[in-house]
Amino acid sequence: MTTENTQHLEAIQDIRKMMRKSTRFLSLSGLSGVFAGIFALIGAAVAYCYIEFIYEHNPYTGDGTVRFNETAVYLNFILIAVGVLFFSIITAYFFSNRKAKRQGQTLFDHTALRALVNLCIPLCAGGIFCIALLYHGSIIYIAPTMLLFYGMSLINASKYTYDDIRYFGICEIILGLINAFYLGSGLLFWTIGFGILHIVYGMTMWIKYERKNRSETGDLS
């Protein structure tokens, strides 16, 4: 291959990279996924301990069930979920903003907003549907519903960011469908979907994109 052909090939590759950056949100950090998974595992552990506390400190009825204040219990579960979401958003912003600065880009550009809007549409719909399930007392369906809508949100947003997120979303949907047949194990599937899968996805993304790019540029900080 001649020098001129090599230069043309490099120019084409540079153009492709520029086009990709202009249409895809590539500042999403894999470490944010890792920490989101860790927070989800902590939240699941707190929820499990709280369930054990309820069974140990509340009286049993004649049919063997536990009598407890449903409103207070559901409110505490919501607070746990909100806490996990809050800390996940904070760490996602921190790591993604740091990655964007390293790349010489701004975090909230038009591609980021597109990805965010496409993520939030199914996510908000799923959240409202979960509130409806809670309102009607169908608590057992909330865990698989969250996994299904979260998976659809990831797939919907993947066209504006890394393609790998599509496979992550598919895994969440599959997990939610399986959970739909094992409704009594919602906390377990929630832990796998929002905890373990997030950590696996985050580490994969970090190794595949961030560590490789930082080693190539010599930035190992």
Question: In a few lines, what is going on in this structure?
Answer:
This protein has 221 residues and is mostly helical. The protein has helices spanning 3-23, 30-57, 70-102, 110-135, 142-158, 164-181, 186-217. The chain has one domain.
Key features of this structure:
mainly alpha, 221 residues, 7 helices, elongated
Radius of gyration using CA atoms only:
21 Å
User: What form results from the Cα inertia axes?
Assistant: elongated
The class by helix and strand makeup works out as mainly alpha
Which bin fits the share of residues in helices? over 70%
The H-and-E topology, N to C, reads as: HHHHHHH
Structure summary, number of beta strands: 0
Question: What share of residues are in beta strands?
Answer: under 5%
**Average pLDDT:** 80
List the domain count as a whole number: 1
